[in-house]
Design brief:
The protein is mainly α. It is 50% helix and 0% strand. Helix 2 (11-25) crosses helix 3 (31-52).
């Protein structure tokens, strides 16, 4: 893992970061909630950071951008180049970045023509985080970092 990770992300420094995050969370949370979140997330995040970001060749090649590796282990991609790479072998109707809009138009045309379409029930989970004070029926748009708590006023 290299000396950087052992210096910056040893058990003492991770505990220090946990405590700092805990203190920061106390600004807007109850003690027990802040403790649960800081204890649950910081060690995992620090370990992931240690495994990749502070791994010596990655840190030197990508973060500092001072080392050249003959193996070309890492390559920094520009978003446009990455999009072209992903779309290179895709059909033309997908490449114009209008695929979803066109698909919805096709579905609507089908429905307008009286055709029935099979439907599926699907669940999608995104932006997963703990909200230990979540209250059903509250506003998701309150102007704060975490909404959906009782007593919050909609924006």
């Amino acid at each position: 893992m290299g000396s950087l990770s052992s210096i910056f992300l040893n058990s003492e420094s991770i505990k220090l970061i946990e405590n700092l995050v805990y203190l920061g969370l106390l600004i807007g949370m109850k003690k027990e909630d802040a403790q649960k979140i800081s204890h649950s997330y910081i060690a995992i995040m620090a370990n992931n950071f240690k495994i990749k970001t502070l791994e010596p060749s990655y840190f030197c090649e990508v973060v500092l951008q001072v080392c050249k590796n003959s193996e070309n282990k890492y390559k920094i991609l520009q978003i446009g180049d990455y999009e072209k790479q992903i779309l290179a072998d895709k059909p033309d109707f997908v490449k114009d970045n209008n695929f979803m809009n066109n698909m919805y138009k096709d579905i609507q045309s089908d429905l307008d023509a009286g055709n029935k379409r099979d439907t599926i029930l699907m669940y999608q989970f995104s932006d997963m985080h703990w909200n230990l004070e979540y209250t059903e029926g509250t506003s998701a748009d309150c102007g704060e970092i975490v909404c959906c708590k009782s007593g919050q006023i909609p924006k």
